Amino acid sequence: MTHPNAGKRAPLDELVNIPALVSAYYTLAPDAREPGQRVKFGTSGHRGSALKRSFNDAHIAAIAQAVCEVRAANGVTGPLYLGIDTHALSTPAKNTALEVFAANGVTVLHSEGYTPTPLISHAILTHNALGESSADGVVITPSHNPPADGGFKYNPPHGGPAEGAITKRIETRANELLVSPGGIQRMPLSRALQTEIALFDFEASYADTLGEILDMEAIAKSGLKIGVDPLGGSGLHAWEVIAERWGLSLDLVNREIDPRFAFMRCDHDGKIRMDCSSRFAMAGLLELKDRFDLAFGNDTDFDRHGIVTPQGLMNPNHVLSVAVDYLFETRDWGDALGVGKTVVTSGMIDRVAKRKGLTVVEVPVGFKHFVSGLFAGSLAFGGEESAGASFVRKNGAPFSTDKDGLLMNLLAAEITAKTGKNPAEHYAALSAELGAPVYARDDAPASLAQKAALKALDASAVDAKEIAGEAVLSVHTHAPGNGEAIGGLKVTTENAWFALRPSGTEEIYKIYAESFRGEAHLVEVKTAATELVKRVLPAE
Q: Is residue 303 within 8 Å of residue 413, measured between CB atoms?
């Protein structure tokens, strides 16, 4: 059910108490014996809340020390690029990390303000292309999560989210340090700032090279009226720099930075969540859509895109499908570069790719599974249903190997400028030709035991030969694109599919489903998925 506050501002008494939250970061100590208070890296880093003793000074000191040890063991000798978003816990976590990085002799390049995730990735790749030394990075962000949350993510020298083997090493070592913190090297912040810690202009470096991946001149010459709501996130200044550098007609409709995010509209469940793919969270910008040719939103660390046309907020799956169709039509990448998608991303991408003779590489949830392909040149594009995507430069070289919300929003502007049709109009044409899928994702509460049961599902759990009137073509527990476990299960028929998987960061499980045969058929597919969950989920 949709919460009564969905699409509205939260009541003042429901806003997070920032002084209490920051105090809890420093004063509450985690109990390493409690699973919910240990360091846990999900699909995109460690996330938690100081109030729940899952994101506190002790966690960040331990994680930062573990990062120092891992980068040293891997021979990373260059600078560490450090960025934060606008969540209240990001600044104290940055200070903790700087104290540890400095004590370990790490050179840190950072900004006095906030830095979007893709700009960190771009800076790492730009440095490493010079071949002088290897750099890596850290982004302190819980992405679109509610205001009381914090997050910490490590990006190795390939510029993207760290792969599972690295995050496991960081997680294991950090939890050891929670128990025995004597292994953490640390110095006071005042001393740390006098070491090899320097400022870096992330925005200028990124904006100056946008012409190598997009037709920025075409966007500028088109005179498109673009509206942008940063949703109080880390890319406010980045949009200012990009607009000035390329002469864009861009109106920042909301310049407010508030760690309570009091200006936000509540999400479907009544929570404040900076999800730029949610029509409820984006309600404020949607009210202004008729003032612009295109309007954009981003989540707090700007790795997700939200694209509003005069027709409304676009479904991320629709954006990805149009992007693949347009990019492979306009870029001279050749047939060797493939299209990456996660197992829960729309089958429309498969149909677009098949029409163009492209190879689709289907991987588990988590952008980290695209990084090696984007970095090495075997993938030209990688996208996931949660509004995260990136692609390579016009010459096939990587631009940012992390999700890039700025890039995808600007691609929508290029498409509109060069074709005279916005992405929503392009998707309408695609669906008229290839079919119009209906897609759903439902979340439900799940305990740790239930999440573990779903993650351990075997293909034998599905004994049905038919789902919603169609023959079962495949049952996957491992992604066909790279053979990695998907942490759940996916069932596919000719015109539909469903997938089950536990969340890596929240106490929920997710049912994804899609049908090319309409809403009624989608309901049948979801019913089949729900019945399977009932059979395999342990009772609480």
A: no
